[in-house]
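Sequence in, structure out. Go.
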Amino acid sequence: MTHSDETRHAVQDEPPTTELESLCPTFHRTVEFIGRRWLGAIVLTLMCGPRRFNELLAAIPGISDRLLTERLRDLEEKGLIERRVLTTSPVRVEYELTAAGHDLHEMFIAIQRWGHKWLADEHAADSAE
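Output:
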C-alpha cells in the first residue's frame, strides 16, 4: 500500500463533517442557556415592555429574589437585556429587552405552539392528579 493509499484509507474511515455537526456546540450552548430555569418566563414578561424588579417578581409566581437577580445578570451579561437606572426620587431600576432579546420572540412563540400541540395532554393529566 502506498502512502497516498494509506492517507485515502484513513480519510475514508473518518466520519464526514457536516455543517450541522459544526453547529452542534453553538446549538447546545444556546439551548442550555435558553433552557435555564425561569429564563423563558423573564424574557416573555419583558416582551411586553420594560419592567422593574418587583414587577417581574410579581409577574412570575414562584421565582425567588435571588434567582431573579441571577437570571437578570445572566441575561444582561449575554446582551439580551439592558439594566437602566432611572434618576428619579427614589432611584428606580428597570429592565428592558435589547434587540438581541427581542429576536427571541419568534422562537418562544414557536416553542409555545409546539408545547400546546404536543404537551397539552400532559398538562391536563398533571392538573387532574
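Check: The chain has a mean pLDDT of 85. The first strand starts at residue 51 and ends at 52.
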